């Protein structure tokens, strides 16, 4: 990608659309190869919804059904105010660049045609535009943002500094989001579903043992800890770890560590495996309360 286009991306989605793609006036009787290129970004075209396929690079995986229904009702009464943006693949075939929520709501409203900006863009631009647009949405959950950041780094070959420039965020913010993807899947799911907040997740990132992360994650939920209390809990744990004296146990092998992590994830608690050189050992499954014990016993079919 040229330096000029990279600079445009740094200005955000609007600059990307203005500087690197053209608008094609839609005419159903004109072949794609014959359509003249213009630079009028105010040109809106009515195209058939059935001719639009969703963006394969769309990073957003979940849509609020109630919010979609409300938008659909608004579209029925007022029409679609903000056009979607598509790229022309071939004659009478378009691919969505941005506006999947509007497209879904328009389908729910029973529209056959939809107003759209028609642009040309290659797959690289498609991915970057879709990711940037979604990252800028306020209602995107933290895991979706983190996954979008990671995709921009992996698939667009960006460094964290470059990514920060493109989405108007400093490097530390980008780093904090990316670190969320190193948390165990159970914690990521809780963050995605709104069970815990970004603040809770950041506190858990400070715990270097996945089994302990799972344990504290469960404790935070069961005791409805605030972010501040969660941070204090992690700090206290780290202080106690530093104060411990005596011989430290031998580190677990990779295979045993993997089993321990999987058990911790399964039982949502800090499972401990102890194995001696002869291969004998024990499994310790702590619980936080009588209810927590019953939960674990049910999982064991006790």
How would you portray this structure in words?
The structure is a single chain. The protein is an alpha/beta fold and 302 residues long. It has 14 helices and 7 strands. It has a 5-stranded mixed beta sheet with strand order 1-5-3-4-2. The protein has a two-stranded antiparallel sheet with strand order 6-7. A hairpin with a 5-residue loop joins strand 6 and strand 7 (281-284).
Tell me roughly what share of residues is in helical segments: 40-55%
Beta strand count: 7
**Uncertain parts:** 1-42, 242-247
What integer is the average pLDDT? Answer: 76
How are the strands ordered across the major sheet? Answer: 1-5-3-4-2
Envelope shape = elongated
Share in β-strands: 5-15%
Q: Specify the number of helices.
A: 14
* End-to-end C-alpha gap: 60 Å
Keywords: Chromosome partition, DNA-binding
InterPro entries: Chromosome_partition/occlusion, HTH_ParB/Spo0J, ParB/RepB/Spo0J, ParB/Sulfiredoxin_sf, ParB_dimer_C, ParB_N
Family: Belongs to the ParB family.
Protein name: ParB/RepB/Spo0J family partition protein
Short summary:
The protein is built from 14 helices and seven strands. With 302 residues, the chain is of the alpha/beta class. The chain folds into three domains: 22-120, Conserved hypothetical protein from pyrococcus furiosus pfu- 392566-001, ParB domain (Alpha-Beta Complex), CATH 3.90.1530.30; 134-180, no CATH class; 185-299, no CATH class.
């Amino acid at each position: 990608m040229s330096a000029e286009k990279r600079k445009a991306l740094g200005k955000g989605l609007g600059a990307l659309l203005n500087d690197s793609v053209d608008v094609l006036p839609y005419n159903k009787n004109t072949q794609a190869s014959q359509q003249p290129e213009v630079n009028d970004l105010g040109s809106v075209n009515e195209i058939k919804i059935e001719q639009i396929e969703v963006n394969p690079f769309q990073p957003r995986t979940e849509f609020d059904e109630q919010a979609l229904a409300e938008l659909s009702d608004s579209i029925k009464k007022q029409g679609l105010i903000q056009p979607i943006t598509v790229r022309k693949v071939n004659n009478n075939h378009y691919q969505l660049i941005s506006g999947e929520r509007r497209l879904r709501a328009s389908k729910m409203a029973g529209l056959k045609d939809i107003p759209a900006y028609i642009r040309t863009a290659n797959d690289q631009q498609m991915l970057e535009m879709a990711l940037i647009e979604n990252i800028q949405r306020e209602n995107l959950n933290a895991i979706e943002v983190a996954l979008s950041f990671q995709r921009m780094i992996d698939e667009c070959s960006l460094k964290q500094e470059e990514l920060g420039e493109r989405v108007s965020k400093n490097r530390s913010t980008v780093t904090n989001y990316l670190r969320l993807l190193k948390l165990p899947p159970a914690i990521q799911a809780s963050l995605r579903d709104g069970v815990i907040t970004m603040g809770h997740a950041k506190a858990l990132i400070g715990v270097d043992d996945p089994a302990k992360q799972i344990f504290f994650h469960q404790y935070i939920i069961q005791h409805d800890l605030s972010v501040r209390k969660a941070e204090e809990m992690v700090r206290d744990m780290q202080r106690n770890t530093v104060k411990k004296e005596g011989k430290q146990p031998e580190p677990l092998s990779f295979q045993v560590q993997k089993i321990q992590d999987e058990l911790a994830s399964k039982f949502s608690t800090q499972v401990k495996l102890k194995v001696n050189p002869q291969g004998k050992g024990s499994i310790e499954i702590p619980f936080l309360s009588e209810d927590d014990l019953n939960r674990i016993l049910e999982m064991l079919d006790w």
